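chain below, 219 aa
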Amino acid sequence: MRPLFTLNNRLSLCAEMVRKGKRIADIGTDHAYLPVWLVRAGFASFALACDIKAEPLMQGEQTIKKYHAEDLVETRLCDGLNAVSPNEVDDIIIAGMGGETIVHILSEANWLKDESKNLILQPMSKHELVIEYLYKNGFELTEHRCVVADGKIYTTFTANYTGNIKEPEEVFTYTGLLKADIEDDRRFLNSVINHLEKKANSDPHFGEIANEIKARFLL
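prediction:
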């Protein structure tokens, strides 16, 4: 069998957050690298590779065939989770898209409000909107990590449904479960501060949030 490829740091972080042996859905799969790697490496028992566009799915199907994963990975043309049913998957990965899009996808799939489901979310922007949505809808973060890939810093978190609806503190929506003693976490937090300070030019409130993050994390 063809040797398995290596995932980059960004996708590896998502893979590490998958519960071993579970069925996964990769939303916005593109070339289907992540689902193919997960099943071929023995971390997932089955995978749905989903995308809203036909061309990425065609490329994904080529990856599936190349690594002989046809019996373990299925492609599906759909908008978010609209064509995925609750009994098909356990862990849901939504990565490589903006926070607003992730919130839209989550809000369209009410069946995710199930304690048995594990969400693995990697927003490319506006992660604070995703964290805010999660807590206001009865989810809680369970793990939160950052990683550098191709010179860029990314954040990824897992969440589960608890039914405990909260109004999250605004600073928490930016910092989540990140820790000051982890280098990649600090790097991400500094990028958040820089972003907020730029936004403070038009709204001083963002500068206040940036200063609070600095104070809490001694950055």
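The helical segments are 9-16, 33-40, 54-66, 99-107, 127-136, 170-175, 183-199, 204-217. Residues 134 and 140 are 6 Å apart (CA to CA).
thats it, cya
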